[in-house]
Amino acid sequence: MASHSDTLVVFFGATAGANGGKLGSDERELILLVWQIVDLHENKVGQLQRTLVQPDSADLSEQCKEETGLTAEELCKAEPLESVLQQFHQSVSAELKSLGRSSYTLCVDGPLLIRQVLHPEASKKNLVLPECFYTFVDLKKEFHKCCPNAGPVNDLTLTSMLDYVCIPAAVEQEAGLREVKNTVLLILHLLVEPYNHKFSTFETVNYKFESGACSKTEAVDSETVIRARGLPWQSSDQDIARFFKGLNIAKGGVALCLNAQGRRNGEALVRFINSEHRDMALDRHKHHMGNRYIEVYKATGEEFLKIAGGTSNEVAQFLSKENQVIIRMRGLPFTATPQDVLGFLGPDCPVTDGMEGLLFVKYPDGRPTGDAFVLFACEEYAQNALKKHKQILGKRYIELFRSTAAEVQQVLNRYMSTPLISTLPPPPPPMVSMPVLATPPFITTGSTRDCIRLRGLPYIAAIEDILEFMGEHTIDIRPHGVHMVFNQQGRPSGDAFIQMKSADRAFMVAQKCHKKMMKDRYVEVFQCSTEEMSFVLMGGTLNRSGLSPPPCKLPCLSPPTYAAFSATPAMLPAEAALYQPPLLATPRTPQAPAHNPAPALAYYSPQLYMNMNMSYTTYYPSPPVSPSTVSYFAAPPGSVAAAVAAQQAPSILPPQPGALVRMQGLPYNAGVKDILSFFQGYQYAPEDYSSLVGVSDQGRSLIQPKEWLCL
Questions:
Q1: Domain RRM, which positions (predicted)?
Q2: Measured on CA atoms in the order 162, 201, 271, 131, is the torsion positive or negative?
């Protein structure tokens, strides 16, 4: 529009639900529009117009019936919103032409009608709003400029503003007409002495969301950030911006959250341009995106930067190309090259700047993760690329999803900060195997029912949510006693086990917390024993029929015990140190030869392996002990260490880069090349281990290439 100061169009609307200060908070549709033109140059007004709007649902709230006096029968005879908006635009344009004016700006009593009702409803109905609905004047803010002592902007009402300037309110029975007439009286009063006000501040609604990168050093106001929960997993930043249509999101202000497996968890952090828009976003709590309702909560700037912030120059350069559509590719072969990806996408979806528009995600050591991000110049190219979802590249199918700049930052931050393959911690200085002087800090099996099982947890529940759920009983949890249960795919199973300090405390928690609510779901709480917990964590099932053992029987999981070795006691610590302590087994005491008695030293059976048949895995903080022990204990100062050193010479394990993995179920004809091909993309140690640790022939039989591989 050429100018915004020629004419104001006073605009009023009512919905089938809440009105006034709660307008738009309940997602109800528009049913009434009233408007009148005010010529700012001549201080003249036009004809008062009133039109009903037919909603999709004519179910009116009691408040609406009382305030508007409308009935469902009247609304059924009205025109739909699209037709009413066309009539509005034609009527105003014709009247402006008769007045000799060329442009106009809407004037509303607060932003709710435009931001919380009109734009969201038009977005849901896929209506294209005229340009005039993207700019408006907020009468409350203009009045506050003229009368700053009238009170805070949010507390102003049409009645209070008229009373402050001593203008009698118009007497009108019909709803809508009364509000518009009073607004016109107030505007005309502000245009003359003593105010002579000029309407020069205009509110705007963003046409579309702008993507962009965010630096970790950027200051983000916590009063501008919200957390949206319950989003469909395939939602993009544009879908979230459409949900908040009418509110202005900051550039690059949508950050999709990922779970521990790098997949979207249905949450997003959204940053708005100011706190006013954030507060209006909070009023959209439990509004719908499709058939799903979305929860909206307050969040902090630190949370937003943790997800969306980045420091990588490579990512910053990749995201520096603005107005690009980002697609994420997942499941790429580790040997895939940029040429392979460009060939897979084909000529119908050219990548921006060729290979410069590709970003491969890698681990800190340079190994590929199988993920990549691709830039496209327009929506058409991106849609062509998405049609290749689950098509084959090499011998693997490739998944393609819409992505965001924040997701790029988050994925890169995740992989570059923490390797996916866990490795053994570097051993501390000289380690000496020690007699077990007290109960080891690992989970020991027993029939005492001092544990509880939580069943039916929300899949997004974290350790913090469980502790909050436990409430005052949290103090009765053993240190590191919370164990989340995940399934084979690494996804939450909805179960968790908690070790309590005593059976009485476990019974009390089961009684008080059973079927208590957590995130709109009730959680079942049962008392159980450590033995039952161990069976489930190792892959078994616990049901009303009792315990079902894991798919692979526990006695078959462990390699042979140390009693099978014909070795001297001095060799035992070195060979025992090759293995991690088990998660759920009690320590075994090696049998020393009868002719050479030795002190009873406790070692943990060698169970550092990857059992592909286990149906569950435990999640931090299981096991309930720091892994720094690595199946041997540092010699403590004092007489105990001296006594041990006197009884047996120390056996020091040299540093080992990597971890030892056991492979079960290999074909009998599998060779070394087959195993190395299986671990393509990972670094593995030399085949000969004799340079690391002196191992006997029988000990070496445990690490034959067909069963053990050092990564």
A1: 225-297, 326-401, 451-526
A2: positive
